[in-house]
Amino acid sequence: MLAKLITGAQNTAVLRARRPAFIFSLAFFCLGVSPSLAQAPVTPQPPSASVNPLKLDFPDSTKGLENLAKEIFKAQKEGDSTRATALAQSLVLPDPASWYLQTFGPGIAHDEGAKYAVDQTHLPAEILTFFFRALQNHNTDVTAARFGQTCDDNAGESAFGTLQLRLEPVPLYELRFINGGQFLRLFAFVYVDGGFRFVLAPTVANHFPYRPRPEHPSDAQNNSNASPPPVTRVRQGGNVIAAKLVKRVQPMYPSIARDEHLQGTVRLHAIIGKDGSVTDLVVLQGYCSLARSSVEAVSKWRYSPTTLAGRPVEIDTTIDVIFSLNH
């Protein structure tokens, strides 16, 4: 349930909560991790209600988050399950409803924010399990990355979508657990109320950047008892909608992407308006520099309008923009 970051070959591992009724998974991607895990000296214990809160001293910086991760590893190695559990519990967001509403808006607060509130009691145990598996795989060289206002291709191909959904530039952090050429990523962390907290990244495909709609009191009063409007949006595959493209603006290949030898496919979730214009776009996959160029170009595309039973409808679809370096 994290926003997923891709690093070359993709291998997904999901850590599930112990209660079947609620599944709170920390999805992470690893590159070349061996299927056989070495034995670790201590198995992390589930959080206990009797654990005393810690006095946190990890500053709002990549170094601060790295030190916090190292402290969890240290506690696990030394068999100090009480401290390990307390550190993991400190990563729970204190007021998820308020944070998600302020950071992402009401739609995401209703979805991911509500899921977080329901499953947060299981989160510390899942965090400890993630760290334990990283310890077993010897992915113990820890670094952190911070993603704020600037476009950063270092965020990987999936983080840009999450960053795009923010209402304000709240910095999001990522932990990376390295073992030689192998590494795991854990995304995302924020700094709230004097400490780092793990947050459930939105499912980007389910949301567009929130834009409040102007409210007209007279209209709201007149329509309060009106029947819901008929369905005016349909889903069509990208190959179908591509055939209706009548105006295409070619994306620029960013110089920074060329310099970094970045190429690949940017996948966009789009709403095509009743008049054929692109009304909403969100990045599902793609490096930031390529994604920004794609959004700028695709927002100017035009399609032939689609009708259903003689009435114009919006189209919910995906659009792929391919960037390829010619050597």
How many beta strands in the DSSP annotation? 13
Structural class: alpha+beta
Low-confidence runs of at least 5 consecutive residues: 1-25, 27-51
Helicity range: 25-40%
Strand content: 15-25%
Computed Rg: 22 Å
Question: Count of helical segments?
Answer: 10
Average pLDDT number:
79
Globally, the shape reads: globular
Largest pleated sheet: 5 strands, mixed
CA-CA gap between termini: 38 Å
Q: How many domains would you count in the coordinates?
A: 2
From N to C, what is the helix and strand string? EEHHHHHEHEEEHEHEHEEHEEE
Characterization of this structure:
The structure is a single chain. The protein is α+β, with helices and mostly antiparallel strands and 327 residues long. It has two domains: 12-36 and 56-202, no CATH class; 233-323, 2-Layer Sandwich (TolA/TonB C-terminal domain). Helices cover 29% and strands 24% of the residues. It is built from ten helices and 13 strands. The strands form four sheets. Strands 7, 9, 10, 12 and 13 form a five-stranded mixed beta sheet that branches. Helix 1 (62-77) runs antiparallel to helix 2 (81-89) and helix 3 (96-104) runs antiparallel to helix 4. The protein is globular and about 70 Å long. The two termini are 38 Å apart. Residues 1-25 and 27-51 have low confidence and may be disordered.
Relevant terms:
2 domains; 13 strands; alpha+beta; single chain; five-stranded mixed beta sheet; 24% strand; four-stranded antiparallel beta sheet; TolA/TonB C-terminal domain; 327 residues; 10 helices; disordered N terminus
